[in-house]
């Protein structure tokens, strides 16, 4: 027989609450460096060792294990523990660190950032903006340009990868030794700006470039400038010319003679090459390579100059006269 009484309706289960996010670690307790902390930094420097510049321990894993080739991404970032890298440029980041791993210290820095108590976020740009921005909560932001290398005052060339490694060392210090970093950053240095920059440049960076065969710089100045390269591990600048509105890369056998002048906006160097033709070069590239004094003289004199490219660098010289050519041929 059919039971006209409706079956009891089951009470729907209450959905489980999402897990609470892990509590953020407390911000480091920082203070302005005390006289004692500053004196300690100064004393270490006078003794020939910047506090914190010692060789760092290697990682417990290989760089390939620390930075998988095809990691998962979330919200535009690859997250490896507390190290976050912009997803679209992760390959450049990984290629750089694989290259830098010739110095085993870099694996240790990457591992400490992944396991660190605070987040380090790496984002990319094309503006030669390479910096580590410390946040009060202990997190760090690393801004990196993977397209430009640097030539220092002493002609030392550093690849984009080495410039990234420099900023990661700053981030590692901020994450694990923020008070020491503040002390070093508040002691001026005539060549490096402050002891934090000296710590990195004369410490890990110097050991990196020696392992890689790159240049050892002796200051923290702008030097000759930043130059485009083809690849994060390259130290060979890509130089350019513009003719008829079309910009192209210059080969190493490039050679052109004519008077030099600044463009109306001052951003380019224009060279008259005859038959009413003009080519122009990026001023920053050109002036950085040949040096400001030689550049100003060539522009001011208005004399014909021979511009060439060799070894990825602009060269400039007065053109040979016919008699010099004959003498040279003999």
How would you describe this structure to a colleague?
There is one protein chain. 32% of the residues lie in helices and 24% in strands. The longest helix has 18 residues. It has ten helices and 18 strands. The termini are far apart. The N terminus and C terminus are likely disordered. It has two domains: 194 residues, no CATH class; 90 residues, no CATH class. It is of the alpha+beta class. A six-stranded mixed sheet has the order 1-2-3-4-6-5. A hairpin with a 2-residue loop joins strand 12 and strand 13.
- Proportion of β residues? 15-25%
Number of DSSP E strands: 18
What structural category do the secondary elements indicate? Answer: alpha+beta
What kind of sheet is the major sheet?
Answer: 6 strands, mixed
The dominant shape is globular
Q: Count the helices. How many?
A: 10
Radius of gyration: 27 Å
Order of helices and strands: HHEEEHHEEEEEHHEEHEEEEEEHHEEH
Distance between the termini: 125 Å
State the helical fraction: 25-40%
Q: Looking across the biggest beta sheet, what order are the strands in?
A: 1-2-3-4-6-5
Number of domains: 2
- Whole-number mean pLDDT: 91
Low-pLDDT segments, ≥5 res: 1-12, 323-330
